[in-house]
């Protein structure tokens, strides 16, 4: 073969090699495409999720479990223990929290809370100075010990010497019997103390006037524990708040909201 013939055969061999390389590349591409198609066919949800993550940069909603984990276990309340908070009925949407300065103190703070629905966090409405029993608080109160009962109690009935403030929804007994006799623990006048009262459901029958004398758990525990107008001194067991505060309480409390009073020394 002449050198000219050999020279003519080289381009042919080069073309054949290029064709083989192109065919190999096409085969590899086809295999990769097929593998990707099979992956998508096997897990379309995951593939869609990847596509969503690539195309949607909007902030994603917080996972509900994570949201509940971040929520305060006290649900907006302060000054009480988790054990006390757990005793508050889930269906209650109105609450008066009375926090004493100490277990043996007669000075405290009363705070009105509401919440938009059962189980939601509590929202503070207003707060006032308050007085409680002259000897503070007790979990086993007895008649005449000058302590206020510690715990969580329903608020179901009201009354007073004066007519109910406009908007009052609790059952209200306007009666001349709401007149305090004698003087307070420190000798102060009790005039006007019972102009407005809300009965605290401690050793009493819910659904009756605060003047109802019946004590279901016996006379030894005492009774007639009320939220009433403060007389500038400690009480024998009731909780006293300013007169304007009593008006606000009566205008706010609604039997449908299952109101309760939570009362005791700081941290109880």
Offer a concise description of the structure.
With 268 residues, this protein is α/β, with parallel strands linked by helices. 28% of the residues lie in helices and 22% in strands. It folds into two domains: 3-55; 74-265, no CATH class.
Structure description:
It is a single chain. This protein is an alpha/beta fold and 268 residues long. The chain has two domains: 3-55; 74-265, no CATH class. 28% of the residues lie in helices and 22% in strands. The protein is built from five helices and eleven strands. The protein has helices at 3-42, 44-55, 64-70, 82-86, 243-252, and strands spanning 94-100, 107-114, 123-131, 137-138, 148-149, 151-160, 172-174, 197-200, 226-229, 239-241, 260-265. The strands form two sheets. Strands 1, 2, 3, 6, 7, 8, 9, 10 and 11 form a nine-stranded mixed sheet that branches. It has a two-stranded parallel sheet with strand order 4-5. Strand 2 and strand 3 form a beta hairpin. Helix 1 crosses helix 2. The chain is globular. It starts with a helix and ends with a strand. 31% of the residues are buried. Mean pLDDT is 83; it is low at 1-19, 22-56 and 65-69. It comes from Streptomyces amritsarensis. This is Lipoprotein.
């Amino acid at each position: 073969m002449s050198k000219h013939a050999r020279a003519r055969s080289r381009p042919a061999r080069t073309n054949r090699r290029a064709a083989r390389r192109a065919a190999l590349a096409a085969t590899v591409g086809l295999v990769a495409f097929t593998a990707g198609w099979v992956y998508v066919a096997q897990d379309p949800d995951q593939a869609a999720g990847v596509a969503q993550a690539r195309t949607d940069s909007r902030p994603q909603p917080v996972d509900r479990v994570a949201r509940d984990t971040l929520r305060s276990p006290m649900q907006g309340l302060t000054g009480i223990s988790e054990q006390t908070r757990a005793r508050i009925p889930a269906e209650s949407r109105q609450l008066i929290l009375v926090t004493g300065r100490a277990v043996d103190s007669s000075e405290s703070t009363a705070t009105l809370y509401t919440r938009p629905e059962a189980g939601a966090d509590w929202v503070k409405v207003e707060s006032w100075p308050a007085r409680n029993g002259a000897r503070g608080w007790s979990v086993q109160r007895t008649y005449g010990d000058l302590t206020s009962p510690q715990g969580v109690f329903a608020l179901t009935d009201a009354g007073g010497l004066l007519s109910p403030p406009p908007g009052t929804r609790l059952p209200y007994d306007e009666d001349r019997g709401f007149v305090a006799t004698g003087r307070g623990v420190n000798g102060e006048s009790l005039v006007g103390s019972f102009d407005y009262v809300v009965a605290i459901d401690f050793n009493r029958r819910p659904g009756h006037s605060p003047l109802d004398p019946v004590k279901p758990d016996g006379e030894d525990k005492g009774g007639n524990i009320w939220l009433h107008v403060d007389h500038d001194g400690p009480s024998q067991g009731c909780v006293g708040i300013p007169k304007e505060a009593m008006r606000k309480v009566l205008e706010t409390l609604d039997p449908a909201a299952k109101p309760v009073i939570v009362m005791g020394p700081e941290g109880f």
